Amino acid sequence: MVNDLAAKSHQEHYPGEVIRFDQLDDHRFLFNCQNGVRLLLHVLSDKILRFRYLTDGPLNPDFSYAVPADATTRLAPALVEFREKPDHYRLTTARLICIIQKETLKTRVLDRSGTVLSDDEKGFHWEYDYDTGNDIVKMSKQVPPGVHYYGLGDKPDNMNLRGKRFTNWGSDTYGYVKGSDPLYKNIPFYHVLHQKIAHGIFFDNTFKASFDFAAERADVTSFWAQGGELNYYFIYGPTLLEVTQEYTLLTCPPELPPLWTLGYHQCKWSYFPESNVKEITSGLRDRKIPCDAIYLDIDYMEGYRCFTWSKQHFPDPKRLVQELADDGFKMVVIIDPGIKIDPEYSVYKEGIENDYFCRRADGPLMKGSVWPGLCNFPDFTAPRVRTWWAGLFKELIQDIGVKGVWNDMNEPAVFEKGTFPPDVRFEYDGHWASHQKAHNIYGMQMARATNDGVKQFCYPNRPFTITRSTYSGGQRYSSGWTGDNIASWEHLWLANIQCQRLSISGFSFIGSDIGGFVDTPTGELYARWIALGAFHPFFRTHSSGDHGDQEPWSFGDEVTDLARHFIELRYRLLPYMYTTFWQYATQGTPMLRPLTFLDQHDTETYLRMAEFGLGDNLLVCPITQPGAEGRWMYLPRGDWFYYWTDAPTSGGAEVWATADLTRIPLFVKAGAVLPMQPVLQYVGERAIEQLTLHVYYKNGTAESVHYDDGGEGYAYQDGQRTVRRFTVAGSPQELVLTQAIEGSYQPSYATYRVVLHGLPGPLTAQADGQDAELTTATLETGLTLPSVIAPVGFGEVRVSVAPAAGEKAEVAA
Predict the structure, then answer these.
(1) Is the dihedral of CA 96, 97, 102, 107 positive or negative?
(2) Whole-angstrom distance, CA of residue 19 vs CA of residue 269
(3) Residue 365's beta-bridge partner residues?
(4) Which of 201, 503, 508, 682 shows a CA-CA span of 20 to 30 A to 15?
(5) Which InterPro entries does UniProt cross-reference here (predicted)?
(6) Do residues 32 and 18 touch, judged by C-beta distance below 8 A?
(7) Backbone dihedral region of 506: left (phi > 0), alpha (psi from -120 to 50 degrees) or beta?
(8) Which residues 6+ apart lie within 8 Å of 770 measured at CB?
(9) Within 13 A of 231's CA, how many CA atoms are on the CB side?
(10) How much is the pTM?
(11) What amino acid positions are annotated as catalytic residues?
(12) What number of CA atoms fall less than 13 Å from residue 487's CA on the CB side?
């Protein structure tokens, strides 16, 4: 007898002919095929189309960890026209046209000018997996000439993904290298750039998923998963930046973090006992190296039991945390998912008594070995378990005073086995699932539960959590880092790429272990790495204690001075960094922007990856080779100033940026208003008495923004915030700076020092129509420039060039 199921498991199946369609409401259309296959097409907005394919059975409940149920309420297409033609259906929005072929159910998406954006090759097809009972769901699309792909989270490879294949299956990948796959994070979202028009594909499927960007066949790109629905979103730009914005708003950006989290953090595996922690924090303060956070790794616990403290190493944690807080340090501690099997351990007993731990298919508890030994693991996909887990943070956060929590090993990782067996069962918020479905969201749901607890018990302050593993939408709950990297020049290069890629994948609050976690960097490598880290949103040195010390002073006085130099630059830039985070949190804009995102109409940017934008006005390009005194880099079109010399430079070309160890190639966009504050040893060390506005000349107009709300608490949600919008209007005769103020938050400073870049002398100035004194300001770069003091509420500063002024300085970087 022929085993039909076994035979089916080796065949690809396709939709039959469409025999009817049902319009479910104004924005949802159901296409029914003769063999039972259905396509539910949901028009979420003029720019977002959702495709759900089903092979048999009833329509599954519409549940997603990535897209909250209320995330689409802001979306409403202004125009949806639906027409039936002899051989196809045609759906039109204000921005897109979607064609569904009747014979094959293949789809094509065009913009309103008729440019084809996406065209199915085989389209939706599937293969029955006899071993699991799941359908392996697949989608393949045509690859037009000249197309490029970006995104997909933390993949350690070239920025442009064309010609590559990747898998999403969160994995503990110690000491990974370029090309290692998979890694820790699972973000099934990528960008497509063709004919200078961008769109994105978000494949919301939590099973093990793969992506082929014309690797197997040069004219086909495809994605598939080992179960679940073929459920994806088409997201139109037309700019790459807008694609990321739409995706991030769909999966929801994070709340604003406390300002101190954007300062410098010091970490090691491990700082213990208490005397060692005090030695490190004293070393930072004695050397005047700014720092806001000190971390404790697993050795602070009693036998690696989560939510405990080693009585030997930390006999009085509350006192220690308070003493560190008095010196400006916020304590961050690690919490892993593995709960040690120990009948005398209260967390374990609660988990057993209330059935909070994951079970195998036949009922036994899931057991696996991690740092504490044999452990059970909470099912973070169960709401009651998340509530319990959140409550466990009361003592750490509310009673002891810890300010942040760091989740590790949550891919989930198990020693020797890699991860959980496939038959482990999860509640999955009422949609029971195996580990095959829940694996990729386990770390995200742990971070969710952790964030819930930290937020509950740190109120009225804001929470801070970090995670190693996550899924799309995980940015709502946590910051992150790029995992167990290596102290090598290649990994400095990778840190730059990975953080950019994660940022454009919706996860901007990201950084790397500065200096490398594995092995020991040279002083030069550490100096170059901390220079790059100063421009990453999450700014932390972290290392394995097996490989020696890695504090900023571990490499001699010269490197200590360099580390201090770049950390101080970071603290000066905190107003700009915080504003950039506010833009991310409110508009979905990536904080780090690859060169292509700055000018997708310039084909020279498509294959470049070293240069990146931080926010609206800064361009950074790290030095990633030893012995270099600078580097060639590409400047986007427009006018720029080299930060260190103020030399004006025109973009659209390669330039040489001189950069010894005291510099990182850093350019400021002409017309920018860059807010900077005095150097503090930690956020909140003292009230800021004056903010500096660095105004860069532009022959034309440009706009900048500065956001402020004090950097802590939730009063900003009730209106205690201020958005200051600056406009620079420059001509050969003058520069006019205007300010429009929205909001009622009053900062501690009453004046700005407005520093003028790129203007020839002699000059005269007025503030709000009154003559203002021009003085000189000596900057940390050594430059001496004209400046004027203006009240924080000024409306206009006007600077005029006297008729006898000489010509502008020669442009050179």
Answers:
(1) negative
(2) 62
(3) 359
(4) 201
(5) DUF5110, Gal_mutarotase_sf_dom, GH, Glyco_hydro_31_AS, Glyco_hydro_31_C, Glyco_hydro_31_N_dom, Glyco_hydro_31_TIM, Glyco_hydro_b
(6) yes
(7) left
(8) none
(9) 19
(10) 0.97
(11) 408, 411, 484
(12) 22
